[in-house]
TrEMBL record:
PANTHER family: COBW_HYPB_UREG NUCLEOTIDE-BINDING DOMAIN-CONTAINING PROTEIN, HYDROGENASE PROTEIN ASSEMBLY PROTEIN, NICKEL CHAPERONE. It comes from Methylocystis parvus. It comes from the Bacteria. InterPro entries: CobW/HypB/UreG_nucleotide-bd (IPR003495), Hyd_mat_HypB (IPR004392), P-loop_NTPase (IPR027417). SUPFAM superfamilies: P-loop containing nucleoside triphosphate hydrolases. GO terms for biological process: protein maturation. This is Hydrogenase maturation factor HypB. The lineage of its organism: Bacteria, Pseudomonadati, Pseudomonadota, Alphaproteobacteria, Hyphomicrobiales. Residues 4-163 form the CobW/HypB/UreG nucleotide-binding domain.
Length: 232
């Protein structure tokens, strides 16, 4: 079974990119299933179902969505094998820019939108910098100059990635992305596989439900901001 992880900030068009790509592949993709990871809620499962794609949704709730993802992705692969999928797509949103869901040996895609500002690619961490493919959406509604600068900054952040422009409405770009999907490595299990980047190591009271503010409530791995003697 081929596996693809697709990640990106909320509302950049990840689901549209995936569904347009699957539709473009037609029978070449075989039996396709999807897993949608999100933080609090999602309506995207309805879009997958409407497209005839079996979907399982996982909501992190009060847990760190990054840890939730990595704690469940191998179970998703097992579900994919039991469902006889040829291609399993794991879509994740709600990940902080510090993290990366990409896994060694698994095709990793990052979706960003050109409307987010030309400097955004430099602000996104391993999710973009360690992706195999960076898909840029909404390029049709910014100027040519903005498109070129945005693409340049993506290239600067991740020189080794394939960069694709994608129109989530028309599906332009789906053919090339689909080629990468069906060329993804076959994976039997992710047990023993490794993430391309570590998850946050911070464990503090706020991770487990603390809501009070003040140093008396701050324990564990806490990092304080430095003001550098700028107080007036």
């Amino acid at each position: 079974m081929r596996i693809v992880t697709v990640a990106g900030p909320p509302s950049v068009g990840k689901t549209s990119v995936i569904l347009k790509t699957i539709a473009g592949l037609e029978s070449a993709a075989g039996h396709v299933g999807a897993v949608k990871f999100d933080s609090l809620s999602t309506l995207d499962d309805a879009l997958y179902s409407r497209a005839g794609v079996p979907i399982v949704t996982g909501l992190a709730g009060s847990l760190c969505p990054d840890h939730y993802f990595v704690s469940n992705i191998d179970d998703c692969v097992e579900w994919g094998h039991k469902s006889n999928f040829d291609l399993l797509i794991a879509e994740s949103a709600g990940l902080c820019n510090r993290c990366s869901p990409h896994i060694h040996g698994v095709l990793g895609v990052c979706v960003v939108d050109a409307l987010s500002g030309v400097h955004t690619p430099r602000k996104i961490g391993p999710m973009l910098k360690l992706a195999d493919i960076v898909v840029i959406t909404k390029g049709d509604i910014v100027s040519q100059a903005e498109r070129e600068v945005f693409s340049y900054n993506v290239r600067a952040a991740n020189p080794r990635a394939v960069i694709l422009s994608f129109n989530g409405i028309t599906g332009q770009g789906a053919t090339e992305l689909g080629h990468h999907f069906i060329s993804a490595p076959n994976v039997e299990s992710l047990a023993g596989s490794r993430l391309r980047f570590s998850m946050p190591s911070a464990v503090c009271p706020y991770c487990i439900g603390e809501t009070s503010i003040g140093t008396d409530h701050q324990r564990g791995n806490v990092r304080k901001i430095s003001f550098g003697g700028t107080a007036t």
